[in-house]
Amino acid sequence: MAGPMTPSAPFGVMLTAMVTPMKADGSQDLVGAAELATYLVDSLNHDGLVINGTTGESATKSDAEDVALVKTVLEAVGDRATVIAGVGTNDTAHSVSSAKSAAAAGAHGVMAVAPYYNRPPQEGLVQHFWAIADATDLPLLTYDIPKRTGVAIETETFVRIAEHPRIVANKDAKGDLEATQWAMQRSGLAWYCGDDILNFPMMALGAAGMISVVGHVVGDRLAEMAAQLASGNVEQARSINASLLPVYEGIFRGPGVILTKAALAMQGLPSGPVRLPLVDATDEQREQLRVDLALAGVRGFA
Questions:
Q1: C or N terminus of the chain, fewer CB within 10 Å?
Q2: φ, ψ of residue 17 in degrees (nearest 5)
Q3: How far is CA 32 from CA 10, 105, 107, 268, in A?
Q4: Which one is catalytic: 39, 143, 192, 248?
Q5: Is 192 a catalytic residue?
Q6: Cα dihedral sign for 7, 166, 132, 127?
């Protein structure tokens, strides 16, 4: 594995925000989810998985489906990987209920994105995250992705929410390395990169690890990059990162979940269709993705 769970890396180092495999009729594929989780952990060196997040199509899944997926992934890999359940919504009461359900199902931690659409003030963010953290005994990972939520978690807010003993980390997809550095320095939270193109620079700045999307296809190489950085081998880490640039570009030519599921299908791994309002990759998109992944030497494409 890329790294053990420590106070500075409470969920491990190499994690992926896992897609939710679906059957042809659009229903959740639990057998496929167990197979995919096992592949990611045992073949691609993952320390953990985040499920029921954005890449897991949480916005179009039911609470019952979320709980079933938590139980399935825990049974498959919970003895050798951290399983974090996404529980964040724009409704604090719903998020609290989801956190309690995830804890009852056995999740090792929970992740809560900043509330989307209603654009709460910073005080609302503080109260929202504290309420979720109060709901269980699990460690909580906040998730800052203003391009999706419409509201950014400010540095002073990170300082405040970090006062809660169960808020231990943040997933950063803000795309602002200046803000990242201040928040890391002032809050003391463990930091996880949630924007794949910034994995290397954020790790170099002291992030604990990555919660990746491209980890579905190159998690082992990301784990090696992190290990090389931790050993002080910066040039080796930089070289690995450079080799992954076509993967970052390829997977994010469109919504990450769409092209990730296309890549997994090409490799014969469980993925299935996406749910509306997302739509599956076109033949043209799949062909371009094949070229991108081949350029990066991804197994099964090179």
A1: C
A2: -80, 100
A3: 28, 19, 19, 11
A4: 143
A5: no
A6: negative
Q: What is the residue type of 79?
A: D
Residue 119 CA from chain centroid, whole number: 22
Convert the pLDDT of each residue in 115-168 to its tens digit.
Answer: 999 999 999 999 999 999 999 999 999 999 999 999 999 999 999 999 999 999
pTM of this structure? 0.96
Residues 31-59 have pLDDT tens digits of 999 999 999 999 999 999 999 999 999 99
Contact present, 207 and 230 (Cβ < 8 Å): no
Residues 6+ positions from 108 with CB-CB distance below 8 Å: 11, 48, 78, 82, 83, 84, 138, 139
Neighbours of 200 (CB within 10 A): 24
CA dihedral (197, 108, 163, 132) positive or negative: positive
Nearest Cα to Cα of residue 152 among 160, 161, 143, 139? 143
Residues 178, 200: contact at Cβ < 8 Å? Answer: no
**Which of 61, 171, 174, 261 is the catalytic position?**
171
Q: Residue type for 81, please?
A: A
**Following DSSP, what letter does each residue of 268-282 receive, concatenated?**
T-S--PPPTTS-PPP
CA atoms of 14 and 264, how far apart (whole Å)? 19
The C-alpha atoms of residue 290 and residue 296 are separated, in whole angstroms, by: 10
Q: Which residues contact 110 (CB under 8 A, 6 or more apart)?
A: 84, 85, 86, 87, 99, 102, 103, 132, 136, 138, 139, 140, 141
Q: What is the C-alpha R_g of the chain?
A: 18
The closest alpha carbon to 241, from 259, 212, 221, 220, belongs to: 221
Residue 63's CB is within 10 A of a number of other CB atoms, namely: 13
